[in-house]
């Protein structure tokens, strides 16, 4: 009988003096190339011996050593799986954190309206609104600005077409518009949060009232004197003018003198002379005081207002 340790067909280990392989039934007596099979058995025995030596060095039986190697491989696989899972969780959490920092919820909708002010994100206020819609009108318009809700919100506006800031005119009372005007306003709260700019354009053309002079036999000189007296009566008093930037001046015509002041200091004070446009019942004329000249229109009469150099002036 051949001295085989392993079956040359299936590789199963053969017991001493075992002629037939207990795994595949191979007859070991049929082996002709004994030397080649011996080499095969020696290689397989070497592998088996090495495994047994490792087990002996670790103080374990060969069977326990093999089991431990299998357990170590399983533990390594579990560690790898856990590491991948943790990495994925951190990645997803990072993306979610970035998404929420962009001011969005999980559905991708904006949660907070923001505006950029001096490079910073700030909560945005609603736009101011106006009591009169923009459009064309044939009479002066009294515009009230409706201040949006918020904490200590103030509104600033311009009427010259420029964009308003916190340095523009602060809204306190309704604005009277007599001429074509572009009204712009912005709301700002105590924290510096601000709205967008509300813009409205008003086209205002006030028709002049035609004046019909009654037929009279009064000489022209007398009529002119009457109109001059009427003109002085029409302009007598103090008139308040607010320019397009919100700056206020007061014009006082009294006793043949004109005084112009901003309410704190005088700009000038001088005697004046005047010329009228005849045939207008003393409503239109020009006042000259030193180097200053004022074109004045008192139409329509009875509304406690005149126009000085085309600017609306209310009786003060």
Descriptive account of the structure:
With 316 residues, the protein is of the alpha+beta class. The protein folds into three domains: 1-57, no CATH class; 124-204, Immunoglobulins (Immunoglobulin-like, Sandwich); 220-315, Lipocalin (Beta Barrel). Helix content is 25%, strand content 29%. The protein has three helices and 20 strands. A nine-stranded antiparallel beta sheet has the order 15-14-13-12-20-19-18-17-16, covered by helices on one side. Helix 1 (34-57) packs across helix 2 (62-101). The longest helix has 40 residues, at 62-101. 16% of the residues are buried. Residues 104-117 have low confidence and may be disordered.
Topology record:
Layout: H1 34-57, H2 62-101, E1 114-117, E2 120-123, E3 129-130, E4 135-137, E5 141-143, E6 145-146, E7 154-158, E8 169-170, E9 175-177, E10 181-188, E11 198-204, H3 220-235, E12 237-242, E13 248-254, E14 257-261, E15 266-271, E16 273-276, E17 284-289, E18 292-297, E19 305-308, E20 311-315
Parallel strand pairs: 4-11
Antiparallel strand pairs: 1-2, 3-6, 5-9, 7-8, 7-10, 10-11, 12-13, 12-20, 13-14, 14-15, 16-17, 17-18, 18-19, 19-20
